[in-house]
Amino acid sequence: MLIAGAWAGHELSAEGGCVVVTTKDRVVRIPYSQAQSPAELEYSNLGVQQVWECTGAFLTRAALQPYFDKGVAKVVVSAPVKDPNPVLNVVMGCNHDLYKPEEDNIVTAASCTTNCLAPVVKVIQEKLGIAHGCITTIHNLTNTQTIVDAPNTKKTDLRRARSALMNLAPTS
User: Fold this and answer.
1) Taking the mean position of all CA atoms in its chain, how far away is CA 164?
2) Which of 11, 60, 110, 147 could be stapled to 114 by a disulfide with Cβ–Cβ 3.0 to 4.6 Å?
């Protein structure tokens, strides 16, 4: 299996709302959308059964509802879903056994902090036990930081005003 390197023998193009991948054996058309809202697409007409929501824009059950209204059966969200009715945060190797396909139509892949911390904490808890804990996570680049040092009047955390390319920012 090739993990990285040149993608030799394939031609890519875009036409008619599709990315077209042409190989010596076949042509594959992968439809894409530039819709701003899940309510703008008819997923059932496209044969879509599962959506991976990775925009960070739809993080409540209400915001995700248009996917279901348009025919999607399952939504996996790449960030924590903030909702009074909790959504299962799945961390593979830690709690994936809690997933119930008949009940969990929305799941989240949890946060990057949770995915990094939970497996380590699970092993320590199971093998040694934990009485108390405290964490600090540091990101090297996040979507909420500026690329260059700049005034940051909208945020109370002035560390986010520093250049994301040259500064580490504690995030939790």
Assistant:
1) 20
2) 110
